[in-house]
Fold these 2 entries.
Entry 1:
Amino acid sequence: MINSKTIDLIEANEEGMVFTFGRFSPPHSGHELLINKVTSVAKKLGYEHGIYASKSHDKNKNPLKYNDKIKFMKSSFKKANIVKDSSLINPFFVAKKLSDQGYKNVVLVVGGDRAADLEREIRKYIGHKDPKKSFNFDSFRVVSAGKRDPDADDVTGMSASKMRMLASEGDFDNFKAGTPSDMSARDAKKMYDLIRKEMDVSESLSTFLDRMDIDTPENIFEQEALTTLSNEDLVMLGLMEQEDKPSIIVLTKYDDGDLSDTTEKMGKSCKKMGLNFYPVSIDDAYIVDKDVDDSQVVIHNYDGGGKKITLDTSNSVCVPRGSVLTNHSGVGILSVVQDTDIFTVNKLSSMELCNNKLATAIVLERNKIASPKTALVNNEESVDIALEKIGGEFPVIIKTITGAEGIGVSLIESRESLLGVLQSLWKFNAEVIMQEYFEIDHDIRSIVMDGEIIASSKRLKGDGDFRTNKSLGNDTEPYSLSEEEKTLILKAARASGCYLCGVDHIENSEGKYLVLEINASPGSGAEPFMGYEDGEESEISGQEMVDRVISHISDKSNWQATLKDIGSVEEVSIEGIGSMDARVDTGNEGYNVLHATDIDTENGEVRFVTDTGVQMSLPKRGTVTINVGSGVREDRPVVEIDMSMGRKKYKNVKFSLADRNENDFPILIGMKFLKDHNFRVDVSTKNILEAFDIYREYK
């Protein structure tokens, strides 16, 4: 049983981390107790927390591949921070990385049978004489999550070995009963099947028919003959249900009736996988309000030939191509689709961000991602200021804010040429940025999907042209990324908010890597690629890369919202109060908190005075009880107020009211709001969401 006795730990006054490490092969109900212990200790101390899994993979004891294991853990333990880093092969590696990241106070939570040994062994490395081995912790402690009772009938008796045994014996009912409480039945079945596959456990047809509760049709085939049938044959005979595969729609432009190369490849992938595929012409298609509800969306004239499609919102995927931003129809269709339950690979906000080179440059700068110096030049008076900002030397690069495939990009050798080019562009109302120039012979395009790099290629500079775009006829070749490059690329992809994107980067003459831009609609023409899958590298074609994309997005277990980064401090605007800085607090699991004084509740109304002196009266939406320390508990009224942050307005946000005069910020943003809106906190950065506000100031 897990020991629920309160643990006295050090007071949190510096950056701290609570973590655990395990094989989780597979994750089961007993792991919930361990993970709940990690999150409760972290909350008590005001520390961050992390759950780390072993990458071990073998037929018997570790049948789940690392990526599959992480996906199941994320879908099962939604309130926990599941850290994906296959380089951390044991708790010692995790401790070393935390030390290198600057964490001074670290707590490790493990099962009771391992606690003493791990604490003794890890302490040997605290202040070790070899800097490469030393853990630079001010405090370290191992906390026991309790001892497991293998004979118990409840979750404390569950183990990974029991789960593997149930899978090998074909006992799905008891296997499902042992899965984490938040794991869906679909994921439980998928995990069960994967374990059986990796353990080479075959299921006889009779067992299959018994589980499906279908009688053997003896008048068709003998039992032995049935065992030779494929899944397709069984579906045709009515012995197996047809898999409910999703429909794939691609929002795109038809070029004189033809589709782009990448869209055609998507169609080929869908055909191979038995998926319905609909390329939607944004110049012709339209949606009527009455045809949109919680369960379906009808797109009329999707092909320009009068045909319409009815999409099941719970079983469809939308892939927007870059052309959706070229007209109001494309933007409108994407807006409607993403506001339903249809899984949309890239949301409109991410598409717009990547389409705007200035906004992208600002986001990269805000996230401390190395990139070329960039400045807006919107009139002749701003030329010298912009030139000075990017280094003051020629040549420089001039780009229109929007554009793709190298269009609208110029290399300028002198101030005279610069003014001439700018005046020509301004004549057509073009918005222009200036960037510092780097002499390179190639750049690297990497494709990132769902937080993973799946492919990369080197794009060589053409003769007589400084641009590297494949669309200009330049050569490409597979490229193997270094770990440093991978880290930079993934950070840029996260900053964009894209589920699928292309990240372009270069290496300058000093050996430093810089991100050039992020493309929310990457093509497949820069082939051949170096493909990355399950830790292995191999050369793949553009079609194979697209196959991997379609295979991934057609799997519903991968339909998770892409997290957006947010700083530790962000400016917010509260309806009726005004704008102010808010503290983003990952240690607060409850509602947001708003500073208020003279709080008075009567007849279901709450009257109070805000930090700006505004007197407000709002309906009371509940009460929360907060432990403010030393055993003192405080009841706080809860109200709902509209709040804007970044470019988005959030309706009816719940705030508890409290006197925050002793705090640095009048508003605290809690984890409940962050999780509800898919934010991830970058504690090293502030005001990430100001990027678009800065862009508007430039304009």
Entry 2:
Amino acid sequence: MRTMSEQPHVPAHRAAWGMSADLASTALPTFWLLFGLFVSLAYGHIGFVFSVVLGDLPYPFFPVQGVILAVLLMTPARHWGWYLALYYVIQVLDGLWLSPFPLQTWYVLVSNVANVLEPLVGALLLRRWMSLPPRFTHLREAVIYIGCVALASAVGAAWGSTTRVIAGFEFWPALRGWFLADVLASLVLTPTILLCADRARRPVWPTSNKRAVEAGLLILGLVVVEALVFGTHPGTYGAESAAAPALLYLPVPLLVWAAVRFGPFGIACALSLTTILAIPGVVNGLGPFVEASIPDSIFQLQLFLLGVGVPLFCLATVVHEHREARADLQQSEARYRAVVSNLPQGIVLLFDSELCHLFVDGQGLPALGLAHASIEGKDVFEAFPPEIASALAPCYRAALRGEQTAFDLHHGSHTYRADIQPVRYGDEATGMVVMQDVTEQRRAQALAVSEAALRETNEQLEAVSRAKSDFLSIVSHEVRTPLGSIRGFSEMLRDDDLGPEERSEYAGLINAEAQRLGRLVEDLLDLDRLESGWVDLRLDLVDLREIVMAALEQAAPTTNGHVLRSAVEPSLPRLRGDPDKLAQIVGNLVANAVKYSPHGGAITVGASREDEKVHLWVQDEGIGIPASMLETVFDRYTRVESAEHRAIKGTGLGLPIVRQIAELHGGRAWAESQPGLGSRFHVTLPIAGPPESKPIRDQDRLRIE
């Protein structure tokens, strides 16, 4: 059982006539409870308006039960105890002082417990299974309501009939009369009160003149028919005894009219009117029940009202539910069509399993040279030009298989974005196409891409230009220095009178500077050959350990406070490569480590096997490289922009040559470093050697040599 905090939210238009907690705390529900009970009791004590005193006859209709159940369903559960206590007191007072028949006090006190128990059980059951108050807009809601009030009436009738048996009445007539009178009130009067309360903030009167006239004719027809059927004796019209009960069904067409045209509210009001008009005649011996006693006539009338009212009430909820669903569908379809028909520069299509179009709309139809009549009912090949149909047909079939496709479709000077996907439309496989003109978007995207590419190209050219300027500055310095030495010492040899030792010393200096120039030129030529891809590798089995040891021996005289170490794996296998080029890799890496470790420190050269490759690395404790420059240091004409790096002279060709030789052998080169903590350069080389070697062509040999 749910608590009040768990109750569903009640819309504002339903928070009327005691439907909200704030309203329930006022005197309004109490007023309607007292007013309803007064009217119901007066209706019974007057003898059902025009009837004689019932005496020992069963009550055909007990309206007070319908009133109290409606009050409970319209108010919060925390107020139920107060209303039920008030209801019990009124019922007891009525039984003791206002009843035309003498009743024993114990009987009045005990039997009226059933009148309190019954609406309480019904309200609790309904509160458990549905939101309160019910509006009877769905068949499920109506079925739950009928079942709950029937069960509650059975509980109350069982209690009440038991007390009547103790008081000296027969059980079955008491049970039958109690149950039918209460269940009829709960099924007829209570929905009428609830639906009237639900319409408190909405117009009760029909919104059009035609509907008003129709409602008036329906009420007038019910009054006339009820007066004819239940206000006169069948013999008045000369009806035969066997055919007289058929007159009972004269109101049925009007009740069906109320159910179909006016929904649950209409059938509830019509059934209440029929009940109020029929009961006085039946208890006075009138109506179509020929040769039947009044108790039997009342029983037959109750069965008739329940047998006709319950199905028609369910029919009204079904019609109302269908009408609301159809209205929602029409509204949804209207919104969809409004959106689709106003789709700017696009179209929407639905197609079936035969690739035949079921629906088409959109403002983009004229641009494609199409119209509704030229597409709807026709397949893709009949509706579109051949070039469009050939592109769409495979995507249509893919959508029918449950796949989604999106692509750009070109037609004339326009570009369309076509999105094709499966959709649910009926029981068969269908698909939907949304085509949007994206010509301007694509042009803007292409322009943006071209501008971005142009900016990137300009940035690259500027970087190359700066690198070339730096390179020329470095090379010019590297060239001018040895040339100046050569020119100066050669002039001294030419002009000065020197002894043999001095001549030998100056000649050695000239030779050293010439070799320095030669190495610079050789580096430039090597890099050009390597980048051109036309280098003839002289492959052989190479012992990398010997190359490392030789490189360390050659670098030893050039070091200043450096410690050179070898960490080559003893079991390192021979690899297939060019011995001179591999020696150039090790020599350049060692020379680079020495150059960029101006304060000394350890330089370690290591090599180990990793699967089918040899991993060579050189570690120094120098000034390091920023992370953003770890890749660019392998590019030609590139130097790290820092004061420490600019103070170290060099051409910057060693590392690009290392990478080119490594890649020529099928390997790779990269660097790891942290500024101030040194650098480690890595080279991996396949043991089996390069995958292929391209020989130098004669014309290329002439070009690079």
